[in-house]
């Protein structure tokens, strides 16, 4: 028997991280792999943010920080939520965490009892399901259709609710699909939630700034359910600050206090220097993000053109984030030159890595087994080369 706990044995390794590991192994053998598996901006953190961090170090920001974040950072986040999202929160409603990931985990741990059902809109971000598992909740996945840009509808949601439903989790803009819920769609979701007073919603808005259609709508804007919405956001994507590990949530004081308690026993406050950098990021506004978004939009258009030339790949046009998520099921049942059969998206992703030297992530990791996720956060040149290689290696399938 294993010495490890049942809890950790049941947990899956993140498949995005697993694929990146495989890609790195091939690279270590000297193979030129194009890695489109990672959800990471390829931009450097803007200089004004890096400068603020350097100054913070010399100014003595080197000690333990308050568990829920520095007061001025929490105030700046509250101001941002008011200014950009029309959401009124006080600093006491904000908990700063080690990435949006910890904010999500804190909220799940604070709300979910063993046996509670958590409705997760699929395709979903890889970690949602495992967080629910750690909390001993039961994940109920709802898969949107390709025709509806993979967005779950209010009717689908209503039909999935049971007396055990405790929480709903979704991201918009969505990782992995790039879909963005419209105001009207979220209004429908909000109406369903309003009818079920026990249900809370974890709205993951980490890709807020990376939006090609314009309007970002926060579910908490629907006032009658605001107290039951936990809004998660952070600095990783919009400010290209993945390594700094700063995210946050906004919720009622009761829920924020619970998340703070959780965090106080697991990690304490987020890194001092990173918090000062995050404050500077907010003070600088959206200008740096807007510049990056233009690049993401251009790449999306370029990649879409190439993907549309690949027979059998079916993909909606992403409205945000930096991924493309084609349905590749037309290739299931085909045979690789070495005689092996491609039966799943995982088989195809591995084939593309080994044959085409392009790393991507199987849709199985996102609850969408017909799809593969490619990150478009790479240089134009790399993206062009990657999809040329993919097309060529798919042509070799029998
Ligand atoms: N939520 C979604 C949908 C993500 O894609 C990611 C990162 O990949 C996160 C949350 C986590 O963000 P952070 O790096 O701030 O922890």
Spell out the blueprint of helices and strands.
Blueprint: H1 6-10, H2 15-28, E1 34-35, H3 47-58, H4 71-85, E2 94-97, H5 99-111, E3 117-122, H6 127-134, E4 138-143, H7 154-160, E5 165-171, H8 183-194, E6 200-204, E7 229-234, E8 247-250, H9 253-266, H10 272-283, H11 287-308, E9 323-324, E10 334-335, E11 341-342, H12 345-356, E12 358-359, E13 361-362, E14 372-375, H13 380-395
Parallel strand pairs: 1-12, 3-4, 3-5, 5-6, 6-7
Antiparallel strand pairs: 2-8, 7-8, 9-14, 10-11, 13-14
The site of pyridoxal-5'-phosphate (PLP) has 13 residues, from helix 5.
Report on the architecture of this protein.
The chain is an alpha/beta fold and 398 residues long. It contains 13 helices and 14 strands. It has helices at 6-10, 15-28, 47-58, 71-85, 99-111, 127-134, 154-160, 183-194, 253-266, 272-283, 287-308, 345-356, 380-395, and strands at residues 34-35, 94-97, 117-122, 138-143, 165-171, 200-204, 229-234, 247-250, 323-324, 334-335, 341-342, 358-359, 361-362, 372-375. Strands 2-8-7-6-5-3-4 form a 7-stranded mixed beta sheet, sandwiched between helices. α8 (183-194) links the parallel β5 (165-171) and β6. α3 crosses α10, α5 (99-111) packs across α9 (253-266) and α7 packs parallel to α8. The longest helix has 22 residues, at 287-308. It is globular. Bound molecules: pyridoxal-5'-phosphate (PLP). Pyridoxal-5'-phosphate (PLP) is lined by residues 39, 99-101, 125, 171, 175, 204, 206, 234, 236, 242, 247.
């Amino acid at each position: 028997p294993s010495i490890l706990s049942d809890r950790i044995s049941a947990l899956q390794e993140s498949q995005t991280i697993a694929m990146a590991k495989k890609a790195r192994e091939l690279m270590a053998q000297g193979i030129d792999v194009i890695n489109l598996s990672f959800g990471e901006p390829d931009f450097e953190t803007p200089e004004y943010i890096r400068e603020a961090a350097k100054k913070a170090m010399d100014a003595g920001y080197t000690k333990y920080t308050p568990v829920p974040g520095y007061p001025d950072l929490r105030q700046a986040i509250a101001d941002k939520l008011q200014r950009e999202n029309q959401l009124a929160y006080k600093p006491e409603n904000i908990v700063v965490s080690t990435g949006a990931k910890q904010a999500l985990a804190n909220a799940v741990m604070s709300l979910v009892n063993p046996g509670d059902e958590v409705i997760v809109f699929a395709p979903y971000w890889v970690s949602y399901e495992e967080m629910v598992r750690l909390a001993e909740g039961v994940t109920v996945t709802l898969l949107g259709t390709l025709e509806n840009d993979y967005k779950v509808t209010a009717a689908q949601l209503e039909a999935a609710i049971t007396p055990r439903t405790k929480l709903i989790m979704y991201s918009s803009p969505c990782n992995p699909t790039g879909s963005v819920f419209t105001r009207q769609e979220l209004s429908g979701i909000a109406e369903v939630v309003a009818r079920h007073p026990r249900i809370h919603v974890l709205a993951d808005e980490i890709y807020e700034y990376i939006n090609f259609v314009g309007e970002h709508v926060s579910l908490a804007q629907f006032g009658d359910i605001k107290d039951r919405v936990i809004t998660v956001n952070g600095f990783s994507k919009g400010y290209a600050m993945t390594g700094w590990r700063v995210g946050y949530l906004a919720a009622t004081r009761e829920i924020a206090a619970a998340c703070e308690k959780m965090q106080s026993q697991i990690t304490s406050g987020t890194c001092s220097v990173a918090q000062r950098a995050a404050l500077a990021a907010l003070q600088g506004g959206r200008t740096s993000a807007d510049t990056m978004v233009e690049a993401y939009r251009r790449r999306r258009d370029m990649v879409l053109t190439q993907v549309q030339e690949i027979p059998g790949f079916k993909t909606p046009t992403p409205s945000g984030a930096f991924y493309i998520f084609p349905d590749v099921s037309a290739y299931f049942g085909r045979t690789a030159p070495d005689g092996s059969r491609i039966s799943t998206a995982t088989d195809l992703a591995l084939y593309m890595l080994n044959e085409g030297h392009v790393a991507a992530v199987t849709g199985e990791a996102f609850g969408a087994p017909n799809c593969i996720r490619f990150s478009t956060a790479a240089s134009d040149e790399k993206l062009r080369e990657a999809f040329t290689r993919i097309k060529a290696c798919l042509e070799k399938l029998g």
